[in-house]
Amino acid sequence: MNVVSKFLVIVALLFPVAAFCGVPGQVNFQGVLLNSASQAVNGSVNFNFTLFDAATGGAQLWSESQVGVPVTDGMYSVALGSVTPLSTGILSGGAVYLEVSVGGEILSPRQRLLAVPYALNAEEANNVAGISGAFIQQLFQHADFDGQSLPNNDPLEGVIDTDGDGLANFIDPDNDNDGFTDDQELANGTGVNLVTPVIYTTTSGSAGVPLPVAVTGNNFLAGLTVQVGTENPVPQNLTTTGFDITVGAAQAPGSTAITVTNPNAEVATGAITFHGKLAFVTSSSINGAGLLSVAEADAFCAAAATAAGLPGSFVAWYSDPVNSINAKDRLPANGGPWERLDGVVVATSLADLTDGSIAATISIDENGVNKGSAMVATRTLATGLADANNCLNPAGSGITGVTTSTTGWSWMSGSYLGCTNPNPIYCFEQ
């Protein structure tokens, strides 16, 4: 194993764990173990610990091996002396240097262990300013300094400063500064020392078409991965508070889970709502609606959708008797379902549009506003076919539907109005 070690050796982490009235025998020690790529090591690791009387060279004072030490996110905690007890002379004889070997590889440099921890409990100095060393140890290990669940002597707590905010973990209620307290992290099953991502909002859009999605949140880290349904889109424009993805056309209507996984394996979940293809009535009317060509009616729908920021391609439910163009033939045979902007389904398929009734009125405009009752130019019979006599004489009248009806005759073929009248138009997403 090719490893690089970064140790945090601080007096508070070296309290003896044996009886205070005698020789300590053991000393707590914590460290952080990284691999050659500066990534935190995880798993069971075999260590060898050796004490010397010099930073390099010198005489060996003590040594022991510890097998299968658990390392989590690079952090490990051991009791030196738990295999080969430490003696009073070793810790009270001046500067002592700890050499650590991992899997047979010696890490450097040696770490200096100060005599202070033993001084707190030495037989000749068993108090500090009149306070028992035993009391100080108990206070440190068991007092709830940060008001959170993990005790101070837990390997994830102690005097390590995970987020670099100047507060040791044992007095920092949010060790990783991700906005979740340690108690919340424990309740959520997330790591108290690992930044946890959060999804606030996502964009929703039409199913069956590529959809740009803006994901906003917090604690997003470089190298995160994204999964939406069965897709794994690559995040773009990544910051700590958001990123963009494009979801393909394979999504069906409904709510689809989005999962964001930070490189530290912490996860956030959310949902993207894919609605059916949209159908709306235009908010504005166009003069001479009954005299429009199919291309002009389509352009009117496209302009309304664009102004409202609706993605997708829209065509008018509109016929042309002169050129034998039927409204029902202008939508894909396997198209649908279609729904209003408020999510209410209008029809499940093209056949459903022309079977004599629809599930809901097409009364919501492209802005999501209920237009109420309005006459809509269609030039189309209840069967979805063009009205053969529709506005062939511009001075005549043309067939219209009404937005408050769901019957096949009325929603698209309710009555006749003058061909030059201003009317809105029905628009359907292809």
Major β-sheet profile: 5 strands, antiparallel
Oligomer: single chain
CATH superfamily of the largest domain: Mannose-Binding Protein A, subunit A
- Global morphology: rod-shaped
CATH topology of the largest domain: Mannose-Binding Protein A, Chain A
**Count of discrete domains:** 4
- CATH classification class of the largest domain: Alpha Beta
Mean pLDDT: 85
CA-to-CA gap between the ends?
Answer: 59 Å
Helix content: 10-25%
Number of helices: 7
If you compute it from the alpha carbons, what radius of gyration comes out, rounded to the nearest whole angstrom? 36 Å
List how many beta strands DSSP finds: 26
SS-derived structural category: mainly beta
Q: Which CATH architecture of the largest domain is right?
A: Roll
What share of the residues does DSSP label as strand, in percent? 25-35%
Unreliable residue runs: 1-24, 115-125
Write up this protein:
- The chain is mainly beta and 430 residues long.
- It folds into 4 domains: 3-132, Sandwich (Immunoglobulin-like), CATH 2.60.40.1930; 147-188, no CATH class; 198-275, Immunoglobulin-like (Sandwich), CATH 2.60.40; 277-429, Mannose-Binding Protein A, subunit A (Mannose-Binding Protein A, Chain A), CATH 3.10.100.
- It has helices at residues 88-92, 116-121, 133-142, 182-188, 294-307, 350-353, 408-413; strands at residues 3-6, 27-35, 43-52, 60-71, 75-80, 96-102, 105-106, 111-113, 127-128, 131-132, 198-201, 205-206, 211-218, 225-228, 236-239, 242-247, 254-261, 267-275, 277-281, 314-316, 338-339, 345-347, 375-377, 397-402, 415-418, 426-429.
- Strands 3, 4, 6, 7 and 8 form a 5-stranded antiparallel β-sheet that branches.
- The longest helix is centred in the last third of the chain and has 14 residues, at 294-307.
- It is rod-shaped and about 115 Å long.
